[in-house]
Amino acid sequence: MVERQQHLKLFLAGDVMTGRGIDQILPHPGKPDLHEAFVKDARRYVRLAEQQNGRIPMPVDYRYIWGDALDVWQAHKPDLRIVNLETSVTACDDHWPSKGINYRMHPRNVPCLTKAEIDCCVLANNHVMDWGYAGLDETLTTLHSAGLETAGAGRSIEQATRAVRLSVPGKGDVLVFALAHVSSGVPTAWLAGKHRGGVHLLDDLSRRSAGRITAQIAAERRPGDIVILSIHWGGNWGYHIPGEQRQFAHRLVDTGAVDIVHGHSSHHPKALECYRGKVIIYGCGDFVTDYEGIGGYERYRPSLAPMYFVTVNSHSRQVERLEIGLMRLRRFRLTKSGAPDRRWLRNKLNEFGKEFATITEGNNDMMIAVPCAPEYQGGEDEYSKHRK
User: How many domains does the chain have?
Assistant: First the structure.
């Protein structure tokens, strides 16, 4: 019997929004029609980006948007790549009424995801059904036909809540459970049903909900599995972490159900927490978007796009290393950021990481997040004590 290798390296990212403006620069742009209050044509977002940073050479090839991230992946060689895909992949015209913003990428542009060697697309978010049930059905068909795994949405509640099992030969299996919380703006009507497509949606983060998720994980987990809980929660802007989010994450770690909490929805990175040998990312920030040239939130530096690399001991299931590579989105393409941006992000993570006893240290063009108070090993009671 061949002994399993000791380490798994996982790549995680926040929102990948390849619809709207991004879709328009790819080889097979869909209809540009939008139903927004102020913008009616997706090509307007392309023009805004070009006004900000220069001409985009349309059509671009499928690797274009990933830019320097391709070199970072090649250098760090993650075993798996997992992102929150926040767009429909459909040519459907039946937009969700009164939604306001509707993202879609044409199905013929799906190679932009396979060229990045994405292994799993999390779909439990507030844009996957922007083009209705037919749009969701085509999204699932297109992604699965391209060999991409999906989690957090399906044609029934059974499919939407089912974990994705990703096997890494010689290293073990990773289970990805995905869900969304109503605080992220997911319409309650999108909740999947017994015979209705939709997303895995929680209306609260209570002890009872945590217990239900723990039971679902226990039903699918095998000995040695690494478990990622990918959750779309909270608003788009602001660094505050609600107490209910922290309690929910702690409960799932305390029960031994979850090894990594992969949080997203915020358009900028939020605090990290190294807790009991596990890692909780409360908000990954955006990775690929068409927001370039849109003003109003400059203080958050939304053009910065973090890349999270989590190294897990496949025997003990302990997180041994968390590295953050920092990209900058320019002309709808990921480029390496400079030292000033990395210092800014490190300072922000440390400022908001104090509450979580977690610091971030610089390491050339990468950053390593490490616990600054290993003795902090409390669960809910300890958390409540620290809050007083």
Answer: 1
Query: Is the C-alpha dihedral spanning 110, 116, 118, 123 positive or negative?
Result: negative
Q: Is the pLDDT of residue 379 over 70?
A: no
Are 197 and 247 in contact by the 8 Å Cβ rule? The answer is no
CATH number at residue 254: 3.60.21.10
pLDDT tens per residue across span 312-330: 999 899 999 999 999 999 9
Q: How far is CA 16 from CA 62, 87, 159, 214, in A?
A: 14, 8, 22, 27
Is 343 contained in some domain? yes
Distance CA(306)–CA(288), nearest Å, equals 10
Q: For the chain, what's the residue count?
A: 388
Could you tell me how far CA 228 lies from the centroid of its own chain?
Answer: 11
Using the structure block, give the residue that is written with the tokens 């599995």.
225
Is there a domain that residue 2 lies in? no
Domain encompassing residue 146? 8-387
6 pLDDT band (50/70/90 cuts)? confident
